[in-house]
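The authors assume throughout that readers already know how a fold can be written as discrete tokens. In essence, backbone conformation is discretised, so a fold becomes a row of integers matching the chain in length. A single example would do more here than another paragraph of explanation. For illustration, here is how one protein appears when written out as sequence plus structure tokens:

…
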Amino acid sequence: MDIGGVARRMTFTVDGQTVARLRRGATARIEVPGGSHVVRARMDWLRSVPLEVRVDEAAPVSVTAALTEHSTTFTGTFLRPDTALDIRASPARA
């Protein structure tokens, strides 16, 4: 059983389009036009809530996602799978 998601990939979407499928610890650089975008993460049936990200070409944004403690519970896994992944945005490091 892969409780920590080590062998699985997390899929990232921007505005509903898949932009990356990453293994744990991997990174990807995705170029999108400036403006507001909706980012989500999925791993199997587990998912994050939609995250609205404002992109400014002069200030890149970094998005990270991770399994939450809810991902190992019955409720988080089966009844509320949208609580299983945490997604956050922060200014990108240079």
Notes: The chain has a mean pLDDT of 87.
